[in-house]
Specification:
Order of helices and strands: HEEEEEEEHEEEH
Strand content: 35-45%
Number of helices: 3
Largest sheet: 4 strands, antiparallel
Distance between the termini: 50 Å
Helix content: 10-25%
Length: 171
Amino acid sequence: MPLFRRRGEGRAGVLRQAVPLGHGEQLLAWAEDAQSGNHVVVTTHDLALVDVDWHLVWRRPFHEVDTATWHPDSDLLTVTWVDGSRPVQWTIRESALFKQALRERVQASVVLADEFHTDTRRRVRVVIRQDLATGRLLEQIIGGRGTDLGDPEVRAEAEKRLRVLRSEVGR
């Protein structure tokens, strides 16, 4: 498929076709992965991946992003997910706007957060996030590597901290 489908239609237009936008949603930024040629797309509500043939591969809301880490020496962007699914990585050599938009959207989804360390020095974060598409508040308990979130003491501490966060947001 050609880079642009119609005369005068730029990359943004092609990406808008590949990533349908909901009511009030905008295409904010995109960057090409230097390794695969795929495009990573930041919309108002979601992070998406569009392949080299301009097909939507996946789309995930920002409240599902745990971290987005940029390594300037290698141009490597790593995104980890709250649900612990496999991280994704891209080599992004362009677009300060893309990096800024990604950072802003992930941060916009975080309403309140707290963290603590377990007896085994594992980190646990409790977070109230917002679904940017609906405004709905979501609660997350995110364990660091090797953390047993099923441990009754860890669970009790996380629930205690979530109660405090809930009260701070009026829930």
